[in-house]
Amino acid sequence: MDAGALDDLRSIVGPENLIVDEEELRHYARDASPMTGQVPTAAVRPSSIEEVQGIVRWANRTGTPLYVRSCGTSLWGAVPVRKDSVVVDMRRMNRVVAVDEGSLSVRVEPGITFFELERELASRGLSVMVEPENWHGCVGGNFSSHGSGWGTGPNMANQAEAVLGLKVVLPDGSLLTTGSMASPWSGRQFYRYSLANDLTGLFAGSEGTLGIIVELALRVEEAPGGVGLAVYTFDDLGDAADALYRIRRVRIPTIYAYLAAGWTLDILYPEKAPWSHRLRVIVAAPTEDQVRMEMGRLDAIAGARGKYQGPAEAERLVKEKDAWVREFAYKAGMRAALMVHVPLGSLGDYLRKFESLAAHVREVYGLRMGVGGFLTDRSFVSVIAIYFDPRDSDSRSRAIAAWNDVKVRALESGAVPYRIGGIWADQMPRMGEYYDFLRRLKSTLDPMGIMSPGILGL
Ligand SMILES: Cc1cc2nc3c(=O)[nH]c(=O)nc-3n(C[C@H](O)[C@H](O)[C@H](O)COP(=O)(O)OP(=O)(O)OC[C@H]3O[C@@H](n4cnc5c(N)ncnc54)[C@H](O)[C@@H]3O)c2cc1C
Fold it and tell me: Which residues form the FAD-binding PCMH-type domain (predicted)?
């Protein structure tokens, strides 16, 4: 890239927000996965919609690929695929634009973290609907990649369902507003589906391939008046899976229902092995009385074949939340996380398949593999963790080979990817007409191919 082009970019965001230092740029070739992408030529840190538009128009003039990043904590290889690219780092766009209590919505910029947003909403007694276990992930990247986690359960499958509307800078630099604010007279985000097609949904899971999201309107709700916590252990994984299915079927209002296989806990905490399978549940309701009633219904199901672990263990669920997230990811080495949705009603069968896959990974690649995951409406997000030593290049290469092997086996067993990024890109052409349609859509909206080329296999 010539110096004149870089000068033009610098003039859009200011000299302090154009990064060209090689060491700093290496950081942009990585996310929280074992995958390493191409080191970009530069990274820019815009602070306004106009600056984002300027960057996209500049990319069209110079034919430069752009890769968007909010917090950069993806686990699925959302890293630059093409050389000579520029990363658009959205972290400076981290403001709460407006809390609209009347519409029970909040408009935010994409670079805000869930931690920052919840802190802001707490003073009004409000809370967002869905957030990742990693509260330090950003809202923009979460919506753009079908995020789910806390809040998902009988009423909500993922972040896409929790969003009312967007502002998106399209690949030609123009600005699209979706949701009720698309009407020039509305001025508020209170309804998503009124103006013909659901264009908000078009951008959910699009991982930066169709434009740069510069504002999101999230649904908020009154923070629950009560929560109930419980941990149950099971000797049989099939029984634990069946309990989870029945909890969903009778619509117990869980905001967190997490199942960890005992053989995964054996890897993480060998000093206390052997572990039973553990189901950890948080129920939320508007009042304490309702919570007590729901906890009774929960116990009738989970307590039938599982063993309640008592109130102290339940309290630890929230207190040690951050520790669990960190330990599952990093305690036994770094984790190559492969995440797939499986149908809740067949969870027991899938968990048995994953157990034999773990044996396969141990025999062929010499690595340990664990499984945990959580309820999202009718499916279970299975987080398959392949542990490796990040300082050892041989261990990393084996983890990447195992990751690719397991992903194909999981896909062909009927599981579907959670999010795509780089890791699933080579499987997308196997989706036939669905993939062909995505390609046609992409080339229509982005004829220059500047938005995240290679991501989603596009
Ligand atoms: C230990 C750990 C636990 C985690 N637990 C969960 C969990 O429970 N649930 C969950 O959902 N995730 C989880 N994550 C993954 C991740 O932290 C979250 O999903 C996070 O919200 C992603 O946001 P991000 O901004 O970091 O994404 P990024 O990595 O910045 O981006 C993700 C994708 O979205 C695209 N993108 C980002 N911003 C924009 C934008 N403004 N416009 C268009 N495209 C954009 C990127 O190009 C990329 O393809 C976890 C991660 C870790 C490390």
Answer: 36-223
Q: Report how far ligand 1's centroid is from the alpha carbon of 455 (Å).
A: 14
Check pocket membership of 70 for ligand 1, CB cut-off 6 A.
yes
Residue 85 shares a structural domain with residue 97: no
User: Residue 285: inside a domain, yes or no?
Assistant: yes
Angle between helix 311-319 and helix 321-330 axes, rounded to 10 deg:
70
* Cα separation, 218 vs 106, whole angstroms: 5
Domain ranges, residue 64: 3-91
Q: Are residues 185 and 308 in the same domain?
A: no
Has residue 155 got a pLDDT over 90? no
Pocket test for ligand 1, best of 27, 138, 376 (most atoms within 8 A of CB): 138
Distance 141 CA to ligand 1 centre (A): 4
Residue % of the chain over a pLDDT of 70: 100
Q: How confident is the model at residue 374 (pLDDT cuts 50, 70, 90)?
A: very high
Q: Which atom of ligand 1 is nearest to the CA of 133?
A: 8
Model confidence pTM above 0.90? yes
Task: Tell me if 204 CB under 6 Å of ligand 1.
Answer: no
Q: In 3-state terms, what secondary structure has residue 128?
A: strand
CA-to-CA dists, residue 392 to 23, 35, 232, 334, 360, angstroms? 21, 14, 37, 11, 21
Inter-residue contact 113 to 92 (CB < 8 Å):
no
Confidence of residue 151 (pLDDT cuts 50, 70, 90): very high
Q: Any idea what the CATH number is for the domain that residue 86 is in?
A: 3.30.43.10
Nearest CA to ligand 1 atom 4: 134
Could you give the percent of the chain with pLDDT greater than 90? 95
| Statement to judge: residues 270 and 129 lie in one domain | no
What average pLDDT is seen over the chain? 96
Nearest CA to ligand 1 atom 50: 134
